[in-house]
Amino acid sequence: MPSLHLTPAKLLASLVFFFLDLLDALLCVLFRFVDRVVDGAASECYCSDDGCGSEEVSESLYGRKNAFRKLVVRKLEKTESKFDDAKMAKSRWSDCGCQSCLSWMRNGGDLKLHVSAFQPSNVQECERKPAEMENVIFLHGFLASSSFWTETIVPNFSHGVKANYRLFAVDLLGFGKSPKPRDCLYTLRDHLEMVKKSVVEAYALEVFHVVAHSMGCVVALALAAEFADSVKSVTLVAPPYFPSAEDAGLTALEKLAEKKLWPPMAFGSAVMSWYEHVGRCVCFFFCRFHLVWESILKFLARKRYSITLFFCFQLLLVNAL
């Protein structure tokens, strides 16, 4: 029988992540208490197993192992059963309250994604009917927004592309200037329906191309399946693909965010992916005060970089990590 060899590095990693298990469970209790006091109701989290088996929710959210989760959840459920849920506030105390992050709330309840639309510069092309035009929808990836395309890709397109194509760069649900509703699980269906409502139907696109990066590739494939007769081409840049017979979500999570201490980027990825409430703390520090960080970066770089792209997404890390 082979002996188990536990190196000092593995032992240290086990101790660190065991501590993070405990910390995340305690933060779950803290956030539920503060949310209930300030917002009137505790925000839902993925510490329970209520979402297991749901086709719309990835098992990577409910299936993350934590040595203390079940114990804490049982205690919380017994305590919270004594209280009546109050109406949830539109914006949480930990959310950013800047004009950009709250702009979606001023649409009179009609939730639509923020879309940067570029009309063709060719006069003859502009005079054509929308159904006859060449249209391209751009979908960004995780930790990004439509600015990923509008600030780095679109300006470098050739004159021919700008003159003959209608380009639509989308802020996906929960990212950038798009809505960040609290009563949403941010499932693939949610993303698909919002792209359909905000782009395909809003701009009367009968035929179109789709270009997507990273996480956006998943939405792009769903969009292509939904509009099989309308999509002329699909371009996927760095699509996430991890073949697995079962538990595909957890397999991808373990490959993308393996629990290890080194290098620092890998450790940060593991912490933000496996620990929902620790991640909320980090996002509170960065997202809640992203304007401060943007000012600091602008001062240091002497140039305005859109740090909002990185910090102000409020989707999986804050609403549904």
What does this structure look like?
The chain has 321 residues and is α/β, with parallel strands linked by helices. The chain has a domain at 12-79. It has 14 helices and five strands. It has helices at 8-39, 59-62, 69-80, 99-102, 123-126, 147-150, 159-164, 188-201, 216-226, 248-256, 264-274, 276-287, 290-301, 308-311; strands at 115-118, 134-139, 165-170, 208-213, 231-237. A five-stranded mixed β-sheet has the order 1-3-2-4-5. Helix 11 (264-274) crosses helix 12. The radius of gyration is 22 Å and the shape is globular. It starts with 7 loop residues before the first helix and ends in a 10-residue tail after the last helix. The chain crosses the membrane at residues 12-34. Pfam families: Abhydrolase_1.
Topology:
Blueprint: H1 8-39, H2 59-62, H3 69-80, H4 99-102, E1 115-118, H5 123-126, E2 134-139, H6 147-150, H7 159-164, E3 165-170, H8 188-201, E4 208-213, H9 216-226, E5 231-237, H10 248-256, H11 264-274, H12 276-287, H13 290-301, H14 308-311
Parallel strand pairs: 2-3, 2-4, 4-5
Antiparallel strand pairs: 1-3
Helix pairs in contact: 8-9, 11-12
